[in-house]
Design goal:
Blueprint (H helix, E strand, L loop, with lengths): L1 E6 L2 H10 L8 E5 L9 E2 L7 H10 L2 E6 L2 H5 L2 H7 L4 E2 L3 H8 L1 H11 L6 E4 L2 H10 L5 E5 L8 E4 L2 H11 L7 E5 L4 E9 L4 E9 L2 E3 L3 E4 L4 E4 L6 H21 L6 E10 L2 E8 L7 H7 L4 H9 L15 E9 L11 E2 L2 H6 L3 E4 L2 E4 L2 E4 L3 E9 L2 H13 L6 E2 L6 H4 L2
Parallel strand pairs: 1-2, 1-4, 2-3, 4-5
Antiparallel strand pairs: 6-9, 7-8, 7-9, 10-11, 10-15, 11-14, 12-13, 14-17, 15-16, 17-22, 17-23, 18-21, 19-22, 20-21
Helix pairs in contact: 1-10
The structure holds adenosine monophosphate (AMP) and glycine.
The site of glycine has 8 residues, from loops.
Length: 419
């Protein structure tokens, strides 16, 4: 079978790496891909926002499965266009991708389905926000832009002045949909669940580090490192999260005529009252995918086709190695602000020789040189019998890479390692 993978980040490199291991694969195409993905795939210059061009490519290259990596094409309805043409696709339709695309949509669904989550109000203007603040909330107050914001649309305001500054930013060009939320106390963990709209298949847990600085300080990023599994999400807590959060969500989406098909990534807060939903993503996490794929021992095409074709009930639970995986992101100086691009990256082969798995993200081939082309540049995943050895393996790989214009956090996993 020929497969088309859409996206260009570390998540898509991890997906491409795993798809390439499938016995079912003839040719893997990736658009736009990156130099790391090119080791497993034929890169094609397709624009995912041009649905007609994607459909033409699929028809012309006998593609039997399209895997949509990032959220933007999902929210944009590329899944609908492919499904309408009868093409098996891994990733939800536009209406179901609202679980990620609109925080207000998800909060309202939680209210309808009685799913544990932070108390909230939806507002559309600064006047409404200030009125809600005056009567409903205390600090810290969580203020979220409603739509996709690449991890940058959330402010946790600890005072009226901070809330005012957040409102200045969020309403700077007039009225906008915003969600105000109660602050949840606890530890965060991520749960991944595959679903074809009816059947649920848990697909592992992870914890990531969203802040740029060591000790989880500084601005939020897309994620500076992650590990899987997350021991803090015990089997019992995972059971509760599926029963009280994920299963009612999947059922509500199906009942409302907008079934969710793909991977549902639940960001959970483990509170003293049990797991509560912070947010959903409609795709794999980045860099969480770089720790899930190396642990998954099954055939990814078989699994994704079962999701795409509504046949998840017909296949067995996914097999994962008992090993722990950790991934450490190397970012370009300046990230998550304006990154310094163009810096040379050497030592990828040396990092792989240590046993690390290098997943490229913001890289570009410049003649014979690999150079930085974005904020998060690559990630190195290590596997080990426990988190300490996974960490040591990941940093052995990181230390073999020579990237003068880059940086990484040296403390990935600190919370779990200190327990
Ligand atoms: P989100 O984009 O909704 O995942 O939010 C980004 C980050 O903000 C989360 O990973 C949490 O660290 C934090 N956050 C979001 N909502 C809340 C909340 N209600 N209470 C506490 N922290 C939150
Ligand atoms: N690492 C967080 C995300 O993918 O949304």
């Amino acid at each position: 079978m020929n497969v088309l993978l859409l996206g260009s980040g570390g998540r898509e490199h991890a997906l491409g790496w795993k798809l390439a291991q499938s016995a079912l694969l003839d040719t893997l195409y990736a658009a736009p891909g990156n130099p790391g993905i090119a080791a497993h795939a034929t890169l094609v210059g397709l624009d995912a926002t041009d649905h007609a061009a994607v459909l033409d490519f699929v028809a012309g290259h006998d593609v039997g499965l399209v895997v949509i990596g990032p959220e933007a094409p999902l929210v944009d309805g590329l899944g609908d266009a492919l499904r309408a043409a009868g093409v098996p696709v891994f990733g939800p339709n536009k209406a179901a991708a609202q679980l990620e695309g609109s925080k207000g949509f998800t909060k309202d669904l939680c209210r309808r389905a009685d799913i544990p989550t932070a108390g909230y109000v939806r507002v559309n203007s600064r006047t409404e926000a200030e009125a809600a603040l005056a009567t409903t909330f205390s600090y810290p107050l969580v203020i979220k832009a409603d739509g996709l914001a690449a991890g940058k649309g959330v402010v946790i305001a600890t005072s009226e002045a901070e809330a005012a500054a957040a409102f200045d930013a969020m309403f700077n060009s007039g009225d906008a949909p915003v969600v105000l939320e109660e602050f949840l106390d606890g530890e965060e963990a991520s749960l991944f669940v595959l679903t074809d709209g009816v059947t649920l298949m848990p697909f592992g847990s992870a914890q990531d580090h969203k802040r740029v600085g060591e000790g989880d300080t500084g601005p939020n990023t897309g994620g500076m490192g992650a590990y899987s599994p997350a021991p803090v999400l015990t089997a019992e807590l995972e059971r509760q999260a599926i029963e009280r959060i994920v299963a009612p969500t999947v059922k509500a989406m199906a009942d409302e005529g907008t079934p969710f098909s793909g991977v549902l990534y639940a960001g959970l807060m483990l509170t003293s009252a049990g797991p509560k939903l912070i947010e959903y993503n409609a795709r794999f996490g980045d860099p969480e995918c770089q720790v899930l794929m190396p642990r998954f021992e099954g055939d990814l095409i078989t699994l994704m086709l079962a999701v795409a074709k509504g046949r998840l009930a017909e296949i067995g639970a996914p097999a994962f190695t008992d090993a722990t995986a950790m991934t450490v992101v190397l970012a370009a100086a300046g990230y998550p602000g304006v990154p310094t691009t163009g810096g040379a990256i050497r030592g990828v082969a040396e990092a792989e020789a240590t046993g690390g798995i290098v997943f490229q993200a913001g890289t570009r081939q410049d003649g014979d040189d690999l150079v930085a082309a974005g904020g998060r540049v690559l990630a190195v995943t290590g596997l080990g019998s426990d988190l300490v050895s996974a960490r040591d393996a990941a940093y052995r790989g990181v230390d073999a890479i020579d990237f003068a214009d880059g940086f990484c956090r040296r403390d990935i996993g600190w919370r779990e390692l200190s327990r």
